[in-house]
Amino acid sequence: MTSKATAYFSRKMLITVAFGFSSGLPLALVFGTLSLWLKDYSIAYRTIGAFSLLRLPYSFKWLWAPLVETYRLPLFCRLGKRRGWALLSQLGLLFSLVWLSVLSPADSILAMAAAAFCVSLFSATQDIVLDAFRVELFRTNQEGEINGATMYVLGYRLGNVVSGAGAIGLAAVMPWNQVYFINALLLAAGIAAVLTAREPVDRNEETSVCKEVICESREENGGNAAAKEERKEKNCGGASDGRKNRDILRYALIEPFCRFMRRPHWVAALFVVFCYRLSDAYFAPMAYPFYDELGFSKAEIAYISKLYGMGATIAGGLLGGCVLARIGLLKGLLIFAVVQGLTTALYIPLYYAGHNVWLLMLTISLENLSSGMATTAIIAFMSVLCDKGYTATQYALLSSLPGFARDVFASTSGWVLDQTSWPAFFLASAALAVPGTLLCLYLYKKKPEYLAGV
Fold this sequence. Notes:
The chain has helices at residues 3-8, 11-29, 32-40, 45-50, 56-59, 65-70, 81-101, 109-138, 142-171, 176-185, 188-196, 203-221, 225-233, 241-261, 266-275, 278-283, 287-293, 298-327, 329-344, 347-353, 357-385, 391-407, 413-419, 422-431, 433-446, 449-452. The protein folds into 2 domains: 3-203 and 253-452, Growth Hormone, Chain: A (Up-down Bundle); 204-252, no CATH class. It is an all-alpha fold. It starts with a helix and ends with a helix. It is globular and about 55 Å long. The model is unreliable at 202-215 and 225-239 (pLDDT under 50). 78% of the residues lie in helices and 0% in strands.
């Protein structure tokens, strides 16, 4: 076995796969799979599209990421900060999915909305922790960051397969409520991974980093001798409790954003993250209703749309990691941005072909192959952008941007479809890849120093 293959099967990588699975499982249950459940009860397209708003916690998770970054949960102190927050979010996610599993769209649509919102809230919190956990595992090794992103995507897509293809296939032979309950139980895999993982940073080291940043920020802002002396002593023991609290708040709430904004071309980097997956995000809420309208059965959707599609996505993720390692991150981002826009447009001939299993398989395979490559690239890009000491907050901010595009912009997809047609809708979705492509081209030409060697 080569050293490359050995690296992919190391303990860190297997933990990363498990983290990805735990993160990928809940999303489909409040996204595509939930859309099909609602469609089965003849819920209007506008309502299905509006359900995208219930996933807003994914878009605004950066608001409470500083709390996750700095606060250690008393009830889980023995587990450590990262594992404690991860376990709390996973237990909340488990109970929220169980709640959703006992409801029905026919007579409990508002309660379903509330339960789906809770799933999104706890899932977003879990993402904050597990994303920071993953980045901290590989933050000293740039090649490891790309490999870690590749394995994370692998686990994430496996989770999507289970809650997508698996859930839809089960729905053909049992009620949706039982399907959701089974998926809730599968969260035990993520819980087990958290309990067996190790904290990425020792508490003493973490505290030292926090104190060093606090004292450093005092030097930058005041330059007084007392702060310099505190830095030499590597502690801030002479400050009052009130001052300490203000310093901690600065460390948690202000410094992560200030540090990020010191990077050259940081605005362009933010907009790349926001726009990069916009094309897929806009189409996603209407995917299953589209397949259903063309006359595909649940079994066909499960085994073609999800199973073959996710197989292509996983292959795309692995292929994307290899391509990025060979040609570099910036060039890979640019190429994958173009490809994902082109593959979204492939759904237009599928619409005119109608119920054609082979064409559906080809279209979904190509679209998901490009999606897997693009996802690996953007995750690696966000990981490189994060600073040591602010991982949870900065990564939560970055990863919330595609979520905002997915949830807010995608909430209008049903309305746009009602006003136009399926071909026009797919054309508009494909056109949304243009802004991200232009921004990637801009960064590729500028080649910021912090990205030049990746």
